């Protein structure tokens, strides 16, 4: 066992003394040491209940012959961090999470790890750490939040956090009063769990299940459902089997399992952030996965689900309809069914008995919303390395659009322009210097997109940025435009009024300028310098790579 280096031999006597101080008995010294990586925090609704999940995991580990040691990671709530300087720290937290887990696991020589994750950057950060360490590991998420219930004169409707963001735009437009907005605030997030739509957190928890690192139900069983604790108990016992058989993350995650993940992601219409995170996970796994391969997957994968923000259903509905196993059953001809999973079964064996119980929530390939997947990568002279759009959340009339650029060098300036009524139908809002280096930190843009939606402009105004979007974003919102403005990509050359052409069906994103004019404008710009000269964001800006490669560190 790896843990022998801290507990066996006369030279480890001091180590044993310290471990005894933790309450570990002499007989327990002979058992495997299992690290329980818990992202519990009292400031994130998706994580507030994770102590109970960790307790169930630890009890199960003890019962099956292991000794659990719990430690914590940081976790940022993207909703609370949204639309202020705090959002600059959200994506960068992913690298810190991975690094801190590496430090704890190596310093204390754990034999295996159970990862308890839930929200946006925590799930990919933990997946990256698991691949980097490559010791037996299993994931158990905290599960999704239930949708809220909002009563109006028109009856009861299901709502979520995105409803509140859009409510702000409705107040600005005069379609909702501030008192009505506060009523919505009170009910939109009714309890613990990751926000209830197919936003980034739930997308990544579903992808963890698809890639085989989480047990069936990991992505969809609600946080408050007793089955969530039962799943935690199963994870605690399964880790001992994975350790016994020496099955490690790189035995499970490879090019084929990543392709499975992208295929299911396309069928679900998941968050655009999944592209960023899955590319980073591929990097840690040592797998080459070019962006254009994602379009090839999208071309052959139908969109089977319209979950919030693309539709009206929530994750609880997906769970009721059969969950991720049922979605994979519908896609089985497109998947690598031989892939291993932490359950001990292959993907094919897992989906063998899966059943779609609501064909409105999970459609068949015959009745699919679209014969193409929910995400698309756009290329062109404005995005030579690509940009990402959630195609399933774009109105039909905006799939092809051409309009004048309205250029802003920060999210804050763009938000103010929207609030002041300065954005008109037909415009293409350009928000730049919000990329990995430029922000730094690649802020999510849920506030401007939600304002556009709430003001009724999401069907007439497009938005492109070198930043990124929340999984709750809908509309013609194209993010991750690479190279970013700070790296002197073409987006840095755009001027007010330039005509931008968007053609999502043909994966095109272009500015109607000659190549030599773009080069001339870029050459006239001063060298970019980050505003952050000290602290973590300064180091992040210095080391982070392009969004097209997952915004991983260069060293």
Describe the protein's architecture and organization.
The protein is α/β, with parallel strands linked by helices and 555 residues long. It has 3 domains: 274 residues, Rossmann fold (3-Layer(aba) Sandwich); 41 residues, no CATH class; 175 residues, 3-Layer(bba) Sandwich (Glucose Oxidase, domain 1), CATH 3.50.30.80. It is 37% helix and 14% strand. It contains 20 helices and 14 strands. Helix 18 links the parallel strand 10 and strand 11. Helix 2 packs across helix 9 and helix 6 packs antiparallel against helix 7. The protein is globular and about 75 Å long.
The domain count comes to 3
CATH structural fold name of the largest domain = Rossmann fold
**Number of E-type strands:** 14
CATH superfamily of the largest domain: Response regulator
Distance between the termini: 30 Å
What form results from the Cα inertia axes?
globular
Number of helices: 20
Secondary-structure-based class equals: alpha/beta
């Amino acid at each position: 066992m790896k843990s022998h280096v801290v507990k066996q031999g006369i030279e480890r006597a001091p180590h044993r003394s310290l471990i005894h101080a933790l309450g570990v008995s002499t007989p327990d010294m002979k058992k495997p040491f299992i690290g329980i990586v818990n992202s519990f925090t009292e400031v994130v609704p998706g994580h507030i209940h994770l102590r109970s999940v960790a307790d169930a995991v630890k009890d199960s580990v003890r019962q099956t012959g292991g000794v659990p040691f719990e430690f914590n990671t940081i976790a940022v709530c993207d909703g609370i961090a949204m639309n202020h300087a705090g959002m600059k720290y959200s994506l960068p937290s992913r690298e810190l999470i991975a690094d801190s887990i590496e430090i704890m696991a190596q310093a204390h020589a754990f034999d295996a790890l159970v990862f308890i994750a839930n929200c946006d950057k925590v799930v990919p950060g933990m997946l990256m750490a698991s691949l980097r360490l490559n010791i037996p590991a299993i994931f158990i998420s905290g599960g999704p939040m239930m949708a809220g219930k909002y009563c109006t004169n028109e009856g009861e409707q299901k709502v979520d956090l995105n409803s509140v963001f859009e409510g702000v735009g409705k107040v600005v437009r005069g379609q909702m009063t501030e008192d009505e907005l506060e009523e919505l605030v009170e009910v939109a997030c009714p309890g613990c769990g990751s926000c209830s739509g197919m936003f980034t957190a739930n997308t990544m928890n579903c992808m963890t299940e698809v890639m085989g690192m989480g047990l069936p139900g990991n992505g969809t069983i609600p946080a408050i459902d007793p089955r969530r604790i039962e799943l935690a108990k199963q994870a605690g016992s399964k880790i001992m089997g994975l350790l016994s058989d020496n099955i490690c993350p790189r035995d499970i995650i490879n090019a084929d399992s990543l392709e499975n993940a992208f295929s299911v992601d396309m069928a679900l219409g998941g968050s655009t952030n999944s592209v960023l995170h899955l590319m980073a996970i591929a990097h840690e796994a040592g797998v080459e996965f070019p962006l254009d391969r994602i379009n090839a997957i999208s071309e052959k994968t139908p969109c089977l689900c319209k979950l919030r923000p693309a539709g009206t259903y929530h994750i609880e509905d997906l769970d009721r309809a059969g969950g991720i196993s049922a979605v994979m059953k519908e896609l089985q001809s497109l998947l690598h069914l031989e892939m291993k999973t932490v359950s001990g079964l292959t993907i094919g064996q897992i989906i063998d008995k899966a059943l779609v119980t609501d064909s409105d929530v999970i459609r068949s390939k015959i009745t699919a919303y679209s014969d193409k997947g929910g995400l698309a990568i756009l290329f062109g002279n404005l995005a030579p390395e690509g940009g990402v759009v959630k195609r399933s959340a774009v109105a039909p009339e905006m799939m092809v659009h051409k309009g004048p650029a309205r250029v802003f060098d920060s999210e804050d300036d763009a938000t103010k322009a929207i609030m002041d009524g300065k954005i008109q139908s037909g415009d293409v809002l350009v928000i730049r210097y919000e990329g990995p280096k430029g922000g730094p930190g690649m802020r999510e843009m849920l506030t401007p997109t939600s304002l556009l939606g709430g003001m009724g402009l999401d069907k007439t105004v497009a938005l492109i940025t070198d930043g990124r979007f929340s999984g709750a974003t809908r509309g013609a919102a194209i993010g991750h435009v690479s190279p970013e403005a700070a790296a002197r990509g073409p987006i840095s050359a755009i001027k007010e009024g330039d005509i931008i052409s968007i053609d999502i069906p043909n994966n095109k994103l272009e500015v109607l300028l000659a190549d030599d004019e773009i080069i001339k404008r870029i050459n006239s710009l001063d060298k970019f310098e980050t505003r952050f000269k000290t602290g973590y964001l300064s180091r992040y800006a210095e080391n982070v790579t392009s969004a097209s490669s997952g915004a991983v560190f260069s060293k």
